Amino acid sequence: MKTHWQILVVDDEEVMRESLAAWLREDGYAVDTAASGREAVEKSRGRDYAIYFVDLKMPGGMDGIETMMQIRQIRPEASIIIITAYATVDTAIAAMKEGAQEYIVKPCNPEEISLLVSRIIKVKNLQRENTILRKKLTRQYSIQDVFSKNQRMHQILSLAGEVASLRSTVLIQGESGTGKELIARAIHNSGDRAQKPFVPVSCAALAETLLESELFGHEKGSFTGASTQRRGKFELADGGTLFLDEIGDISPKVQVDLLRVLQERSFYRVGGSEEVRVDVRVIAATNVNLPQAVAEGKFREDLFYRLNVIEIQIPPLRERREDIPLLAGHFLDRLSHELGRAVGEITEGAFRLLMDYNWPGNVRELENAIERAIVTCRGASLSEEDFGFLAQNSPAQKAWAPPANMTLQDMEKQLITATLQRTGGNIKESATVLGIDRSTLYEKIKRYEIQR
Amino acid sequence: MKYLYVGSMGDVDREAAAAIGERLEREFGAPVRGMELPDAEFAYNAARKQCGSIPVLELLIRSCPEDALKLIALTERDLFIPVLTFVYGHAQLGGRSAVVSLARLRQEFYGLPPNQEVFLHRAVKEALHETGHTFGLVHCPTTACAMSLATNIRQIDSKQTAFCAACEAHWRRRSRE
């Protein structure tokens, strides 16, 4: 995967600079050039080059060593190769002492440069693979790992950062595949509990009795099959965070038990009589509309308020389409590397298709789509044809049937209420979405007595 | 109708020019025309006792005929770019012109007895390689492919006089664009 690695060639002599750049481009690298040390330092601020070829002697008060030192302050991981026409032991020692990875004398043998670059890239590939694997292994996601250009997502990430070190319960709501667990892990990893366990539990995956035992543990002999004492997830998460995914699916009995733990911070193991005290921060997530479940009597109101201390509502991908190119590029970069496929870009036509698709499965579906396209792609870029399966997956547009006995005013009130909820009460954004100006929206909110 | 021009910069091995013309015509499916070009002597650098490939390429870009699909020039001169001790050839990546140096492709250059067959094979591989660059192809990781990087004569000898399937598909796609 050469195209992912960028190289900067720094030389004041145009012919030197451009000829080396052209030679490296033939080798498949993305190469930029800089005509001075200052230009190189500026460029290094904006882009993370893997390798810098820096000429030792450059005019303008900033030679190769000074350029290298400044670049290393900005990019400590960068590999810098000093090039010179005048090899002396002193300059070689000075360059290496200041952190140059290599020192080459021009003109040099093409084999030498080729081997040098491929050796550095090999190490960089290994380092990158290592970072990806380590992250996967520990799932050490931080807030910086959540990519978004969307204003609402920025507000969510900012809130996640602010509440990371608090003990308050967080309720994350969002459709399936929007990244609820990623946000929960980011909150955990950004706070004081980062060094303590993050314990995820999928509540929907377990039957009522099993979930009870899973959460609170059990004593030996408490039920058939309980041959030993077992600690539950609450105990395992002591000092850290318990992530209760799909909380909307838990039974009334578990709702009561959970409410008790959240209130008293203590519980009894199943079949036990000894009270267990824990210090656990609970983050819950659901794709169910909990206020509606409360209204329908399916979810306890008191538990809802206990969980909903800090509320995070993750918008679906179709409501933050500006993130699609960013996420698609990120997945392409990571997955093409993991799958060992030299697919370097997504064509404009394919991007248009991705932008137009509705993404019912959200970010997870986008990730899967990119992976499938990479696997089946025959060229070096993902084209519209590689995403042909999206059209097949797209459900046919259903005819819309309005609810019976609904007036136009009722409809307008409901639409405004839903839009305000979705935008977190943001008047400007809601007015834009609804296609009316702000003063009209204020007037309608007042007329329909809508709570914001 | 577009032609593939095989240019001779001064006196070049006629057999090599003919073999290259034949192979390029077969590979790229465009009729080949010969072309006489000035000797690369104008780009001679006395300090390095070689000719600069950059001024040579600049000349080719200026001389490229309107009806040329590509202009692949051959020279007997040893070529260099300033940062490297030598180059076997130089191409405009994704452009129309390229030059191939025959100087280091002969056995005699390495103190061995002449072998015209080996020389011709090497010349054809290098011409395919530089023409591939003009179609936007970059170096290929498959060592047997004509587009693999060769920085010494052994690497040229281990290539085949053909593109691998991926490189062939790539130049065909690029030629349609």
Walk me through the structure.
The complex is a heterodimer of chains A (452) and B (177). Chain A is α/β, with parallel strands linked by helices. Chain A has helices at 14-26, 37-46, 64-74, 89-97, 110-138, 151-163, 180-190, 208-216, 233-236, 252-264, 290-295, 301-307, 323-339, 348-356, 362-376, 388-393, 408-422, 427-434, 438-448; strands spanning 6-10, 30-34, 51-55, 79-84, 102-105, 170-173, 198-202, 217-218, 230-231, 241-245, 266-268, 275-277, 281-286, 310-313, 345-346, 381-382. In chain A, the strands form five sheets. Chain A has a five-stranded parallel β-sheet with strand order 2-1-3-4-5, with helices on both faces. Chain A is globular. The model of chain A has no long low-confidence stretch (mean pLDDT 85). Chain B starts with a strand and ends with a helix. Chain B is built from five helices and eight strands, in the order βαβββαββββααα. In chain B, β1, α1 and β2 form a beta-alpha-beta unit. Chain B has 177 residues and is α/β, with parallel strands linked by helices. Chain A binds chain B through residues 2, 13, 15-16, 19-20, 22-23, 25-28, 83, 106-111, 113-114, 378-380, and chain B through 48, 54, 80-87, 91, 93, 133, 138-139, 149, 151-152, 169-170, 173.
The whole-number mean of residue pLDDT values of chain B reads: 94
Question: How many strands in all of chain A?
Answer: 16
The CATH class label of chain B is Alpha Beta
Please count the beta strands of chain B (DSSP E, at least 2 residues each): 8
Strand fraction band of chain A?
5-15%
Biggest sheet statistics of chain B: 5 strands, mixed
Walk across the major sheet of chain B and give the strand order. 2-1-5-8-7
The secondary structure category of chain B is alpha/beta
Overall spatial form of chain B: globular
Shape descriptor of chain A: globular
